[in-house]
């Protein structure tokens, strides 16, 4: 996308000339957008998503759903998406679907493909082929779908056919990826007898599953929870409208910038009632010494005089781990992150990548079995490898707001979830209202 052409590689992030004093509104939530796209696609009738995220990951979802016969219109100027659903049965046979780099898309679309007798081939870019799919594919097989690996077993590409009526109960591990459970749940209302899913191990990223259920219920699903069992009735979905709130994971970068640089950043549209668990990242900053203010439609962080290291279990906020890592070197005392061993299977091994790049910049960091430890120390300038991982680029860029010489390799990788990230990061350089900028006469 445009950021890959517009930014030099590596891209140097210049330190702020003054503490930030800014109000920002990140684009729509990727997690909500992709869940809502699936529900709208399976509903009967016309649904409208306002404020949807338009980025590589969501466009991969849109293209896959279109490939299954769903009519989707996109207004880029307003970030509005109109979906004409297929009533629970994708009509296209022999579809060839490309999930690109989007793990969310691949894991949500696979169960959709199993809703019909038609045969679908689901594939993705080489990094996505390396990511695990085995637990989900095994669950689909247990339900009666025909799943044929076209490469390495348990990975993309695969050929999927519903093979007729699917079963109504299945078990899935909860500690590998919550996306496997969410994918099964999203298609469940369209199964003839609904679906009961039991998790066999403790569930990670619980807020993401809660988000899945909330979006499903918004589209008319009926869900019952009983311990490790989630039962979904065979109601199908009803077409409706949904206003997508800003992406909480994206918001963490701006909130962290205030903590790191001692300024003030307010994120609009993301308030105390957010569906997204990652919104609670602000509370981690409060534990570190920042001042946090919540209201119904916003959250604001003000940097304090000092930051202190914390120990945090981020099993439910795993996408914020790299952001917290960027704050950690500037704290007094070590920061220990636990509970995120499963993020080794994300776009890259996010534990190893964080530690390696911190060490490259002269910061004392160590890998732990289920997380990492980062000790205080002013980072040095250098080039940060990003491993085709958008969150590595966006989080390590925060170091450059305070430390000179930080350069981000492959800055265009942010297009996966946040095409306008670099422009929005520059909003932190804007002077407060009434204060002239450095180039003013």
Structural overview:
There is one protein chain. With 441 residues, this protein is α/β, with parallel strands linked by helices. The chain has two domains: 210 residues, UDP-n-acetylglucosamine1-carboxyvinyl-transferase, Chain; 196 residues, Alpha-beta prism (UDP-n-acetylglucosamine1-carboxyvinyl-transferase, Chain). Helix content is 30%, strand content 22%. The protein is built from 14 helices and 23 strands. The strands form six sheets. The protein has a four-stranded mixed sheet with strand order 2-15-17-16, covered by helices on one side. Helix 13 links the parallel strand 22 and strand 23. Helix 9 runs parallel beside helix 11. The N terminus is likely disordered.
Low-confidence stretches: 1-5
Report the major sheet.
4 strands, mixed
Class per helix and strand makeup: alpha/beta
What order do the strands of the largest sheet run in, or round the barrel if closed? 2-15-17-16
Mean pLDDT: 94
How does the overall form come out from the CA principal axes? globular
- The domain tally reads 2
């Amino acid at each position: 996308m445009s950021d890959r052409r517009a930014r030099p590689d590596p891209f140097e992030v210049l330190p702020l000339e003054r503490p930030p004093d800014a109000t920002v509104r990140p684009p729509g939530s990727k997690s909500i957008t992709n869940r809502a796209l699936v529900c709208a696609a399976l509903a009967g009738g016309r649904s409208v998503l306002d404020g949807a995220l338009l980025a590589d990951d969501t466009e991969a979802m849109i293209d896959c759903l279109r490939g299954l016969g769903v009519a989707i219109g996109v207004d880029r100027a307003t970030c509005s998406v109109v979906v004409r659903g297929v009533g629970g049965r994708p009509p296209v046979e022999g579809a060839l679907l490309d999930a690109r780099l989007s793990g969310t898309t691949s894991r949500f679309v696979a169960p959709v493909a199993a809703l019909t007798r038609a045969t679908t081939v689901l594939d993705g870019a080489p990094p996505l082929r390396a990511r695990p799919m085995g637990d989900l594919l095994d669950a689909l097989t247990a339900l009666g779908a025909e799943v044929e690996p076209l490469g390495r077993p348990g990975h993309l590409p695969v050929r999927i056919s519903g093979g007729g009526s699917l079963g109504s109960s299945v078990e899935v591990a909860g500690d590998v990826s919550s996306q496997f459970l969410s994918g099964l749940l999203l298609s469940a209302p369209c199964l003839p007898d609904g679906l009961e899913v039991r998790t066999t191990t403790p569930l990670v990223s619980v807020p993401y599953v809660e988000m899945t259920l909330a979006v499903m219920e918004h589209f008319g699903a009926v869900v019952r929870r009983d311990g490790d069992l989630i039962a979904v009735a065979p109601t199908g979905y009803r077409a409706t409208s949904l206003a997508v709130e800003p992406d909480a994971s994206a918001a963490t970068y701006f909130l962290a910038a205030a903590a790191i640089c001692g300024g003030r950043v307010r994120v609009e549209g993301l308030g105390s009632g957010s569906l997204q668990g990652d919104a609670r990242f602000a509370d981690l900053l409060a534990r570190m010494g920042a001042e946090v203010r919540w209201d119904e439609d916003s959250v604001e962080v003000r940097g304090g005089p000092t930051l202190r290291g914390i120990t945090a279990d981020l099993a439910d906020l795993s996408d914020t781990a790299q952001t917290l890592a960027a704050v950690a070197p500037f704290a007094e005392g070590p920061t220990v992150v636990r509970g995120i061993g499963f993020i080794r299977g994300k776009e890259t091994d996010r534990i190893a990548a964080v530690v390696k790049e911190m060490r490259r910049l002269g910061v004392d960091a160590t890998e732990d079995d289920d997380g990492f430890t980062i000790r205080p120390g002013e980072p040095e300038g250098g080039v940060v490898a990003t491993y085709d991982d958008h969150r590595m680029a966006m989080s390590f860029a925060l170091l450059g707001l305070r430390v000179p010489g930080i350069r981000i390799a492959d800055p265009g990788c942010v297009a996966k979830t946040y095409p306008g990230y670099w422009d929005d990061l520059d909003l932190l350089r804007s002077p407060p209202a009434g204060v002239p900028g450095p180039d003013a006469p």
